[in-house]
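Run log // design_07
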């Protein structure tokens, strides 16, 4: 499969995912689940095992294949499961997904990576790979911060000589803060907007 075709497929999946997310948001808003946290939590069912498993799998999937924006699913996790459990489920799912895309990038190389990210993003960060030591520091910092293109950098890390063990340690240690800050910003930002809209 050519890079152009695979890119079109990924973009189409992403667009469909965003449209579904918007439709579900409107549907849930009309149901009133954003005004009643118990109704929102009821969406995952009463099972204390199945709900978290489904959510973690969804988070893994959204990292590997960008079906829905990661920020939306992260905020949903905290709203549905509460701050502590939601953070844990987000952390587990996102870390597993980040490890998977790194391994896919390493296994299938540049053609696969270019099918997943734009030429602009690739060209912007490819210079980071020139110096291994510098890349590892920049990569760890980027994963630590909540505004970096994590998924693209995780894919591109597969083109470097970084060991799987070191990569996993960077993900496990640097991800928590960005997940926490991103989730809280979306939740409290959403509450602020809801208050403004009345």
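design_07 sequence
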């Amino acid at each position: 499969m050519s890079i152009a075709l695979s890119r079109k497929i990924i973009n189409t999946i992403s667009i469909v995912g965003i449209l579904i997310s918007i439709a579900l948001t409107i549907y849930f808003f009309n149901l009133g689940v954003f005004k009643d946290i118990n109704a929102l939590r009821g969406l995952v069912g009463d099972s204390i095992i199945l709900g978290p498993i489904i959510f973690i799998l969804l988070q893994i999937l959204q990292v590997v294949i960008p079906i829905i924006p990661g920020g939306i699913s992260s905020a949903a996790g905290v709203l549905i499961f509460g701050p502590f459990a939601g953070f844990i489920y987000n952390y587990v799912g996102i870390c597993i997904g980040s490890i998977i895309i790194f391994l896919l990038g390493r296994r299938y190389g540049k053609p696969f990576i270019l099918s997943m990210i734009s030429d602009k993003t690739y060209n912007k960060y490819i210079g980071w790979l020139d110096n291994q030591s510098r890349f590892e520091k920049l990569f760890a910092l980027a994963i630590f911060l909540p505004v970096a293109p994590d998924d693209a950098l995780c894919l591109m890390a597969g083109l470097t000589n970084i060991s799987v063990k070191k990569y996993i340690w960077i993900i496990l240690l640097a991800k928590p803060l960005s997940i926490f800050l991103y989730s809280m910003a979306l939740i409290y930002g959403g509450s602020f907007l809801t208050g403004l809209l009345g």
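Residues 43 and 176 are 26 Å apart (CA to CA).
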